[in-house]
Amino acid sequence: MNRIPLTATLLSASAAALLLLLVSPLPAHAQLFSAGEVDFTLTESLYVDWHRNQAYDNGAGTYDYFDLKSRLNLGADAPWLQVGLRLDAAGFLGPDSGASADAFDEDFDHDVTVEKIFLRSRLWKLTLEAGDVYGCLGKGIALCIKKVDELSTDTTLRGLKVSLQQPMVGVTLLGGLANVVNVGDKVEEFLPDPNDLLAGAEVRVTPVSSLRLSAHGSFLQDARDLSVPDVPALIHAPQEQEPVSYRRSSLAIVGPGLAVNNLPILGSLFAEYDAMLETFEPLADEETPESFVGQAVYGSITTGVDIVHLLLEAKWYDSRLPESESQTNFMGTKVTGPSGVSDFVYYGVLPPIDDEHLFVRNDRPYDVAGGRLRVDVEVSPLSGVAYASYAHFVDATTGDEAMGDYFVRHGIAGWEQRIDSLSISGNLAGGYRQEDFHFTRENMWHLGADVQFPLIGSHSLQLQGRMENYDRPNEGTEYIIAQASTTYAFAPWLALVFNYEHSDQPGPNEKGDFYSGEAVFRFLSGSYFKLFGGSSRGGLKCAGGMCRTFPPFEGVKGELTLRF
Amino acid sequence: MNLGRSIVALSVLALGLFGCSAAQVSGTGDRSDAGMLSGLTLTDLKGGTLSFGDHLGKDVLIVSFWATFCKPCKSEMPFLQKLHEAYGDKGLKIISISLDPPDTEDQVSPLIERNRYTFSVAIDRQSEATQLLNTKGVLPYLLIFDSKGNLVKKKDGFTVGDQPELESLVKGLLEPQAQ
User: Which residue of B has its CA nearest to A190?
Assistant: First the structure.
């Protein structure tokens, strides 16, 4: 593997892009070009990271390396047709000799791939899509393929999608093979496409404007050609921790949904039921196939009376897992790269209904039932909103498999303040979370605040801080995670961010003080250069209902995004 | 996975960048369709139909992508409401599109109601608007179309200091309509 030419090419491309921008008097709102009724667009993001102190897998030492990632999006948009192409490239430059070079070679390999390609057309009320498609059915429990972020979580189905939308009837059909971002910002190494076969369908009927009835179904056929070892399935009661020689072959989910809007007192109501059938095939010839059933129920009510607003959510998950090493009861899969690094890929979403920031996962791999109530009260004289939220979940495992009275509960109270005349806004919130669920016992309180306000003209400041205190009595550990940041912005050109993180959490990568700075320079409509330097703590970061563990980082990151 | 393909890909990238530099085409002239966007319809929070074709090429149109878990997005929304109140009856239409996934979308409506926002809000459940307008899936992300359907502004992120420039741009776009 010759890394120098590749790296030189990547760096040359980056330098060339910067040079071209400097010498080209591009208009403030350029599009690449237009031909008749067709617009052509281009978005290019180039990420250059210098990693300091990358740990060997065996913990024997560290080394430094560069990674370079490119995301090139090309699009053409006409009144009747849209086509798009995303080309990803990744290259790595690390130590050339010694044990660190061997470790580096094992972990990193260059990659270039057509990450996305799609064609979309609209005929009458039909939308036809081919290539990489997204889609969500119902509440997303049965199937939800949606972009979270381009750099790391952007799974698609490489196949077909047909949507019909009429005033009273809507139909969505989609199917294809699962396609993940092969080299993303979370794992930062190559992960193969799982190529699981997925198909889904949803029919929505709207007899009156405030009522929508739906039915959906999805099917997952686990791929058989992954270049990873077979993962035996754990298809028995939790107390029997011996995996048996089965492997999931398929998962099917069907269910109805109901949405009602604008009810006089109840406001809006949503309910969904999902029934699941999962089949396993034996790895040994003498065994026979097995199948299991599971179900999920989710409901929510949102309503408001004058200054009081309520959100009530309830769920019951029976044999549904948010993620699973053995890939059982899990609408998703686990992909493993050539170096052994792995990641979970989600094809569906289980509503976790915890804090609005979802910083702690409350799904557990057992049957759960519970709900959440959030109340917001407008305090008009102060232009503020007081809010409180309480979530409570219990172990819903019954029969011989029941293990005890386990629970998770989380209370939050806060205040949102807006002074629109001065463009000032802020938020102060705190809460307490207690978990006693099978193998996890944890008490945690948290406090957070943020405020942003203008200075003079286009200058503004944002201050933000958060502290979490964890107590794990059965491990005998207690630790603090704290984070503070200050952002100064001179709109629209410049933003400077200073970050500080502190952690007492036991672990080689989690503990310590972490300082970082980031500068964002904007130079065209939608284009910018971002430079990050310093260290950041890795760990679980949750957003949008999905929690992912990011690696700790120390070094320098550069991102150049150009939009045309 | 091999070096040759990497170099080919990067050459394409470099050529693309060179090509866009060479093209330097600005506004797209008098057009009112803006591609497939004019045919895009989303369902608003009340269950009604929100059709881009009803506004594109007719009104000055602001399209704002946001999510309930995105703090800068929530800072942008009072400004959008201010624009809506000031210019909503003067030819400005605001369409706010939530990218919330299904597990947080139930928080969209309460957030809109408790803040008394009155501009149009929809949830992009099938990622259609994202595919058309926000390929990178950035939050917040704002686009402004003039009354001829030309895209005149794309903006990542938001700080309160952005308000004067954006308001000035909107006012400038609305002025020809007022005459």
Answer: B1
